[in-house]
Design goal:
With about 90 residues, this protein is mainly alpha-helical. The chain has one domain. The chain is built from 4 helices and 2 strands, in the order ββαααα. It has helices at about 25-35, 40-50, 50-60, 65-90; strands at about 5-10, 15. Strands 1-2 form a two-stranded antiparallel sheet. β1 and β2 form a beta hairpin. The longest helix is centred in the last third of the chain and has 28 residues, at about 65-90. The protein is globular, with a radius of gyration of 14 Å.
Length: about 90
């Protein structure tokens, strides 16, 4: 599977996460974050994988922009987890 970082547009600028989401598929990361509620998990992901530019962009968003960003990021996270599950099943 190709590792690529998540990018999004904010105020006409393309901003990229510093790390790809392969790290959130590790059993260690999942174990360490399994009890977080959705909002805490979202900000943990932004801070751990996004970097300063992503955090600054999120802090600058209004509520509509943040809702759109959160929805798209959630879909990307779900996609990453499905790919992890498919790989795990294929390895059986």
């Amino acid at each position: 599977m190709e590792n690529k970082t998540y990018t999004f547009e904010h105020n006409g600028e393309t901003i990229a996460f510093e790390r790809d989401f392969s790290g959130l598929r590790s059993p260690k990361w999942l174990r360490e974050n399994r009890r977080r509620d959705e909002l805490d998990l979202l900000f943990t992901l932004i801070e751990e994988f996004g970097g300063e530019d992503v955090v600054a962009a999120v802090d600058d968003m209004d509520d509509t922009q943040f809702a759109d960003f959160s929805e798209k990021l959630g879909k990307e996270m779900s996609k990453a987890m499905k790919e992890f599950g498919a790989r795990a099943n294929a390895a059986k």
